[in-house]
Design a protein that fits this description.
Two copies of one chain form a homodimer. Chain A is built from three helices and twelve strands; from the N terminus they run βββββββαβββαβαβ. By secondary structure, chain A is an alpha+beta fold. Chain A starts with 13 loop residues before the first strand and ends with a strand. The model of chain A has no long low-confidence stretch (mean pLDDT about 95).
Chain lengths: ~200, ~200
């Protein structure tokens, strides 16, 4: 994101250049020398299961309004990834979850995000749409609406889950989701450098 | 970090409050309504080994100048965690590494960081101090300078590595490193909620 004014002194004497001894260009204030660093964000979420079904949320907001997603969102300051996954699951699906393990970690370098998805089981059988969801429901793996999934990270996580269920063991999967889907149909997104633990 | 002026319009009419429909306080510009989000950063690094020894760097800069660390630093926009680990290993230890797997993931919610450390093997046998290091050397596990390690994340990663070597299998370990070490001696830091895959 472009910085037009210094957040510390208010000057508009901002230059986008590589600071001395650094390697990346940054927005630097030439009045007070403050450097406005910008770094990737973590998106934390959860693959919530119940009786072999997966919990999906229909998005009530842009982007991808009307498409299905796992509960997930920006990790906040002062929380852990697990706490963020719990919080997002509550906010979007009004569900409580027992987190079993980290499940997928995807780099999305073209949008400066790292997705971290936990695997967990629904606690009890209660869920309902939060303010950012139109609908929340459990899908058997046969019912997953593949053509209506909001993001490639969600599709890849669900594909890995189905593979893991077939082999009878949940892994922990790390990979990169690369640029094509920004330019075209998300269905063209490419998962690369997959490493499974 | 406190925001005094809007980065988009330059106004000082900034208020720290919870935006409508949100749950966390943010710095909001009351002139142009821009919200200055702040989120955790990822620190990417690498446990580099060679002939059963680990590569440590003596820090040339603050914080913890003169203390030993693994090559690690802030992940940048437009890169993956693995690319960041490679880059930091080159910048701090002038070493190339073959990354084998993700190794430790630590939440540090009190300083809004997530440490992600890869495990890898030194490619060739070359290494040297980069500009942020005073010295780089290989330590056998018996030689590790436990009292001179820069950060609890480094100590916990090395402890887990020694345990894993004894059992003959490298895991992938996730946990939280909690607040006490900010207030007192880093040796008092507490690793909690450890889950090993």
């Amino acid at each position: 994101m472009k910085i037009h004014f210094c957040s510390q002194c208010g000057s508009d004497n901002i230059h986008y250049r590589v600071p001395d001894g650094d390697h990346c260009p940054r927005y630097i204030c030439h009045e007070c020398q403050f450097i406005h660093y910008q770094n990737p964000n973590i998106i934390a979420g959860c693959l919530v299961t119940h009786d072999d079904k997966v919990l999906l949320c229909k998005r009530a907001i842009q982007p991808k309004k009307g498409m299905w997603t796992l509960p997930a969102g920006f990790m906040e300051n002062h929380e852990t990834i697990a706490q963020a996954a719990h919080r997002e699951t509550w906010e979007e699906a009004r569900a409580r979850v027992d987190l079993d393990q980290l499940y997928t970690i995807f780099n999305l370098p073209h949008i400066n995000q790292v997705y971290v998805i936990y695997y967990g089981e629904l606690r009890g059988d209660q869920f309902a749409p939060g303010p950012e969801s139109l609908q929340v429901r459990l899908f058997s793996t046969e019912e997953i609406p593949w053509d209506e999934l909001a993001f490639p990270t969600i599709r890849e996580t669900l594909k890995l889950y189905i593979q893991d269920r077939e082999r009878g063991k949940l892994g922990l999967h790390c990979g990169d989701i690369v640029r094509p889907w920004v330019l075209a149909d998300p269905k063209n997104a490419t998962l690369k450098n997959l490493v499974s633990h």
